Amino acid sequence: MTDALELDALWDEFHRAVNMTSQELAAWLRVSDASEETGPLPEHAGSPTGEHVLAILQKRRTDLTDDDLDVMYEVVDAVTAETNAGSEPLAGPGAEETQRRHRLMALGHDPLKPPS
Questions:
Q1: For an engineered disulfide with 45, which of 14, 33, 53, 60 has Cβ 3.0 to 4.6 Å away?
Q2: Mean model confidence pLDDT for the chain
Q3: Considering just the CA atoms, what is the radius of gyration of the chain in Å?
């Protein structure tokens, strides 16, 4: 487990990177997995990382496991890399930008959501 200062910093950074609420993320994971071939919306939909982010959002800081911390570091790094790469303008709002937004939303970050 990490020390208290490192845990506090990670907790804050994770919650800055993950700007969607647990309800918003759960709804997105269900919608992103839905297709004509699938049946009713599953209770657990989306990528394993997205599901783990959702579980972390529903925990208190004192209840985090080492696996949670690993995912938190992974998500902070991925969101930072994607948002930095996304600062370079694309030719226009097209498929690439939509795919980038969907990748970020699967991690709990909606780049179109205004900062709170």
A1: 33
A2: 84
A3: 15
Reduce the DSSP state of residue 92 to 3 states and report it.
coil
Short-list 27, 21, 32, 13, CA closest to 99: 32
Report DSSP letters for 28-76, one per residue.
HHHHHH--TTS-SPPSS-S-HHHHHHHHHHTS-GGG--HHHHHHHHHHH
Q: 34-56 b/e with 16+ CB inside 10 Å = b?
A: eeeeeeeeeeebbeeebbbbbeb
Q: Does the pLDDT of residue 60 top 50, yes or no?
A: yes
- Beta carbons within 10 angstroms of residue 90's beta carbon: 11
**Whole-prediction pTM value?**
0.82
